[in-house]
Amino acid sequence: MEKVERKKSKGRRRLEMPHEHNHSHDHSHSDEFTQRRNYNKAFGFGIALNVIYIAVEVVFGLIINSMALIADAGHNLSDVFGLVLAWGAAYLAGFSVTSKRTYGLRKSTILAALFNAIILLVAVGAITIESIRKILEPEPIGGTTMMIVAGVGVVINSLTALLFMKGRESDLNIKGAFLHMAADAGVSLGVVAAGLLINLTGFFLLDPIISLVIVVVITIGTWSLLKDSFHLSMDAVPRNIVFEEVKKYLSSLEGVKEVHDLHIWAMSTTETALTVHLVIPDGQKDDKFLSKVCEQLQHKFGIEHSTIQIEKNVQSASCEDVNV
């Protein structure tokens, strides 16, 4: 019985065999370090600007009696907590493995994305409640001040969102940060529109009405993040990987008669792991075969950490197979 595990950690790929070891090193991960450092700057920049802006919104919201500004400040506060969570998770993901945490703290990125989605939905609920109260009890609002303060928010949140735009497709944790900032920019833009219309029409109910419209937009975007992060937290197959396609590829390998105990799950928001048993009756497969399979799994499906066990007959298996 042969077993191989291909790992990528701190710029190194490792191929392990039970009786024989073959190590190869790859130092091409400096780009990943640079990206992580750039995100550190993005997180710091976004948090600092939003804390200052929250104080400005609260002060002017109270002065002109604008629910939209105060609601936006509350939403921004939740986003600051969300950014802190995402930043902390990205930092924890870089911790080395230990004898008790054999995958390190990579899973924290998934938990941060899940908590971010929950925080966003809680903020949405609070905005909805207060907006309904303002509809039932409308109050006069200073539209011009409202527009100026919210306009500053559009600029701040848009700039911060742009810093996370590139990484949102490949990292669910970064996607959470991007959605937070993009949602804030949308809220602020809605507040600007409300201020303008209030000045033109004197219809103060526009303030809470615009807030409710923005709530719907935020909820739609957040629901996707919530589903994806919960999906990964349950060790389900990442949505960008088709289980049947991976099994089909493994079954097509020369000499493979059966594929069983195939498991695919997310180690973090950017890394995927796989374990599988391949039944090869002749058993004549060497390190090159195993290394090639691991490379193809990464190239075709984006699976970075693969552990393959070769068996001569299916009776040697003791694990429960996955029904497809």
TrEMBL record:
Residues 47-230 form the Cation efflux protein transmembrane domain. Keywords: Ion transport, Membrane, Transmembrane, Transmembrane helix, Transport, Zinc, Zinc transport. SUPFAM superfamilies: Cation efflux protein cytoplasmic domain-like (SSF160240), Cation efflux protein transmembrane domain-like (SSF161111). One of its GO terms (molecular function) is zinc ion transmembrane transporter activity. The keyword Cell membrane does not apply. It is a multi-pass membrane protein. One of its GO terms (cellular component) is plasma membrane. The chain crosses the membrane at residues 42-68, 80-98, 110-129, 141-165, 177-198, 204-226. Residues 1-32 are annotated as: Disordered. Residues 238-312 form the Cation efflux protein cytoplasmic domain. Residues 1-13 have a biased composition (Basic residues). The keyword Kinase does not apply. Residues 14-32 have a biased composition (Basic and acidic residues). It holds the Pfam family ZT_dimer. It is found in: Membrane. Signal peptide: none annotated. Belongs to the cation diffusion facilitator (CDF) transporter (TC 2.A.4) family. SLC30A subfamily. This is Cation diffusion facilitator family transporter. It comes from Stygiobacter electus. The lineage of its organism: Bacteria, Pseudomonadati, Ignavibacteriota, Ignavibacteria, Ignavibacteriales.
